[in-house]
Design brief:
The N and C termini lie far apart (about 40 Å). By secondary structure, this protein is α+β, with helices and mostly antiparallel strands. It is built from two helices and two strands, in the order αβαβ.
Length: about 70
């Protein structure tokens, strides 16, 4: 098992879908070698991000905010 962690230099706070996609693509990992993408913050949500993960056949787990 390989764990890949990528520290981003992001002074603006939140990453958008394009930033997250670029980070994964810059890792130079074959997509069939990625077992799971984990999102740990509420900002890692969004249709474009989820669509890209699904279109690339990547399994993912995201922490979703609760609703009251």
């Amino acid at each position: 098992m390989l764990l890949y962690w990528h520290l981003l230099d992001n002074r603006s706070g939140n990453l958008n879908a394009a930033d997250r996609i670029a980070a994964l693509e810059s890792a130079h990992l074959a997509k069939d070698r990625i077992g799971l993408v984990r999102g740990g913050d509420r900002e890692s949500l969004g249709h474009a991000w989820f669509k890209w993960l699904k279109d690339n056949g990547l399994n993912f787990v995201m922490r979703l905010p609760t609703t009251a």
